[in-house]
User: Which sequence fits this backbone?
């Protein structure tokens, strides 16, 4: 059981800035995100696209904004829990018990939901037989490359992720790349590398093919793929990787008894608390009259929610409003040395 002052659901830009606002008030946060990295929409949907409306930053990209937010919260040494979706929350004697889909448990007086448009989930292969192999021999993201050494790997997909991993794993394993179209969508350099590896027999390419079935039993040994004419081929394989992009799903958040309007959570704009004491919603997922789904609005919402979190986490202390330019407390928490 991990105890912390605040659980933040979502490591998008707003969840990251919430870490800062809590940290300068001396509160600890644990951040949980279903993705394998921080940044939310900025990283998943537009890492290279310029953003022009972050205060005092005339231009940045989704990636550089995320990098700078991470740099800003570095002093707080925050614990991040990636690849985990918050599944259940339950009240326990004035605190909240939080459970993830990987059975990790947290206890905290505060939950800040900064879940954006919901958790980003990988689009999966449409074959029931493969579900039981997920996490053992079927994967939709890569965490530990070592698992994929000296294996027979079938990679599905036609975009950058499928191609990049096909190139990478062809150095250490036997790779078959399978795509439902004849054309791949990748950078010219990647496509020419792929062509070269195909010519030298280092990668087998099967197009236009789709998955048809997998073997029965407890261990993945082979899959059948099918082309447009109904022709079926068997491929000996012990690992299947699927890269079909992500879908956004509100998922379990909708089942937590929070007052909602059209997949967003209603909040009180004084402190961004929901109808449940100690549960806050900020960023794209919150809803109030006049709400703008902008990053800068989320930053303001994080600042106000953090004050109420402080009051709940430190009921015996008085909250003191302080400027970072003049507060020795804040500067100490940020690791700034004053003479
Ligand atoms: C193409 C595009 C361009 C944009 N350009 C701009 C712009 O120029 N300026 C601007 O201000 N805004 C822009 N936006 C909007 C901006 O990206 C969003 O307002 C911002 O990302 C919201 O941040 P957030 O932290 O609230 O949510 P998100 O960025 O959506 O992050 C939410 C995170 O929560 C995680 N999550 C959700 N539910 C769970 C759960 N149950 N368990 C675990 N994790 C969960 C998700 O995986 C995700 O990582 C743009 C958006 C798009 C799509």
Assistant:
């Amino acid at each position: 059981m991990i105890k912390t002052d605040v659980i933040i659901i979502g490591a998008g830009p707003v969840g990251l800035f919430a870490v800062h606002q809590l940290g300068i008030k001396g509160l600890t946060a644990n951040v949980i995100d279903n993705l394998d990295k921080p940044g939310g929409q900025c990283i998943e949907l537009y890492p290279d696209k310029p953003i022009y409306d972050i205060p005092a930053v005339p231009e940045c990209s989704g990636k550089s904004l995320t990098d700078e937010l991470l740099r800003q919260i570095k002093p707080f040494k925050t614990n991040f829990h990636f690849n985990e979706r918050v599944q259940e929350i339950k009240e326990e004697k004035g605190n909240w018990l939080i459970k993830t889909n990987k059975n990790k448990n947290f206890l905290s007086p505060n939950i800040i939901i900064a879940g954006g448009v919901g958790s980003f989930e990988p689009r999966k292969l449409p074959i029931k037989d493969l579900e039981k192999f997920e996490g053992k021999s079927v994967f939709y993201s890569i965490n530990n490359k070592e698992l994929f050494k000296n294996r027979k790997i079938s990679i599905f997909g036609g975009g950058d992720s499928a191609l990049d991993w096909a190139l990478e794993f062809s150095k250490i394993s036997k790779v078959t790349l399978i795509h439902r179209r004849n054309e791949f969508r990748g950078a010219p350099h990647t496509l020419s590398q792929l062509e070269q590896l195909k010519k030298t027999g280092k990668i087998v390419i099967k197009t236009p093919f789709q998955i048809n079935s997998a073997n029965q039993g407890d261990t993945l040994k082979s899959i059948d793929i099918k082309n447009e004419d109904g022709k079926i081929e068997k491929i000996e394989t012990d690992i299947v990787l699927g890269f079909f992009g992500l879908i956004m799903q509100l998922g379990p958040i909708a089942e937590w008894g929070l007052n909602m309007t059209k997949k967003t959570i209603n909040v009180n704009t004084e402190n961004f608390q929901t109808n449940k004491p100690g549960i806050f919603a900020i960023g794209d997922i919150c809803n109030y009259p006049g709400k703008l789904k902008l990053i800068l609005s989320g930053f303001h919402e994080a600042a106000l929610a953090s004050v109420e979190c402080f009051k709940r986490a430190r009921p015996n202390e008085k909250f003191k409003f302080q400027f970072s330019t003049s507060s020795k407390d804040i500067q100490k928490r940020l690791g700034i040395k004053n003479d």
